[in-house]
Design a protein that fits this description.
Distance between the termini of chain B: 61 Å
CATH class of one domain in chain B: Mainly Alpha
Shape of chain A: flat
Strand content of chain A: under 5%
Radius of gyration of chain B: 21 Å
Strand content of chain B: under 5%
Number of domains of chain A: 1
Largest interface: A-B, 50 and 46 residues
Number of helices of chain A: 4
CATH superfamily of one domain in chain B: NADH-ubiquinone/plastoquinone oxidoreductase chain 6, subunit NuoJ
CATH architecture of one domain in chain B: Up-down Bundle
Helix content of chain B: over 70%
Largest sheet of chain A: none
Oligomer: heterodimer
Order of helices and strands of chain B: HHHHHHHH
Chain lengths: ~120, ~170
């Protein structure tokens, strides 16, 4: 069974190798005359003001949390869906209860406007 | 030594190295990126243990979602991305001593455990995903934790929406 993972291993190796070669070639052939001016972040030709990072709106965090929660929901779906036909009506009812409880949260998030980006 | 043992050794080294980098690097974003490497290493361990579904879940949930959450959390903080403070506090020799004692104890335990007799049967060719699906909704197995998990997810969802979208808090700032 481990042999089935070889494709992923080859892909990982090629991706890493291509990235490494690209960086290495740039390092090898590119001229290296570093100066403070060049290390500055480019800000449309203006002099940079303050740190380059700023606080992001909390909505990014909210979207990430919602993403995780629905991600986990899907993780529960997958093994259930594989044996859906063997489980019959009982399995269907249990999944409906599971989704029903989560639907409450989904409607709450929807009504609160958590899914909108103002 | 066969191929899987070599892969395990290399992966374990990678996991330890990247986990150390997570706590020693001074750039928080770099720490988050090293954490992704650590989690990917754990994925390889799951694959070596023939836990296919767990490996996929590890990538989808941990690498795909939780790492993103960490990076967003870093972006939300007001602090500088770089930390210039000391990385050790006064108690570090004691902490190192206790950690070494725990490590030694675990090592002794593992050496004395009858490992070869207790090795689980190989999962080769078994329908582990189907068995998991059966167990998830069967009344004899995990149906109660499964339904309770939905309540947990619901609480997390409502909590996140409430904390992030509380209008009163926004006007206080």
């Amino acid at each position: 069974m481990l042999l089935e993972y070889i494709a992923i291993g080859v892909l990982l190796f090629l991706a890493t190798a291509v990235a490494a070669i690209a960086i290495f070639l740039g390092e090898l052939f590119g001229p290296k005359r570093k100066s403070d001016k060049k290390a500055q972040p480019y800000e449309s030709g203006m002099l940079p003001i303050g740190p380059g990072t700023r606080r992001m709106p909390v909505r990014f965090y909210l979207i990430a949390v919602l993403f995780i929660l629905f991600d986990i929901e899907i993780v529960f779906f997958l093994p259930w869906a594989v044996v859906f036909r063997q489980l019959g009506l009982f399995g269907l009812i249990e999944m409906i209860i599971f989704i029903g409880i989560l639907l409450v949260g989904y409607i709450y998030a929807w009504k609160k406007g958590a899914l909108e980006w103002e | 030594m066969d191929a899987s043992q070599i892969i395990f050794g290399l992966t374990a080294l990678l996991i330890i190295f990247s986990a150390l980098r997570v706590v020693t690097t001074r750039n928080m974003v770099h720490a988050a990126l090293w954490l992704i490497v650590t989690l990917l290493g754990v994925t390889v361990l799951y694959a070596l243990l023939q836990a296919n579904f767990l490996a996929v879940v590890q990538v989808v949930v941990y690498v795909g979602a939780i790492a993103i959450l960490f990076i967003f959390a870093i972006m939300l903080t007001r602090r500088e991305m770089r930390d210039g403070g000391p990385q050790l506090n006064k108690g570090w020799p004691l902490a190192a001593l206790i950690s070494l004692a725990v490590f030694g104890g675990l090592l002794a335990l593992l050496y004395n455990a009858p490992v070869s007799e207790r090795l689980a049967a190989s999962l080769e060719g078994q329908d582990t995903l189907g068995a998991l699906g059966q167990a998830l909704v069967s009344p004899d197995a995990y149906v109660l934790p499964f339904e309770v998990a939905s309540v947990l997810l619901l609480a997390a969802l409502i909590g996140a929406v409430y904390v992030a979208l509380n209008k009163k808090q926004e006007s206080d700032k």
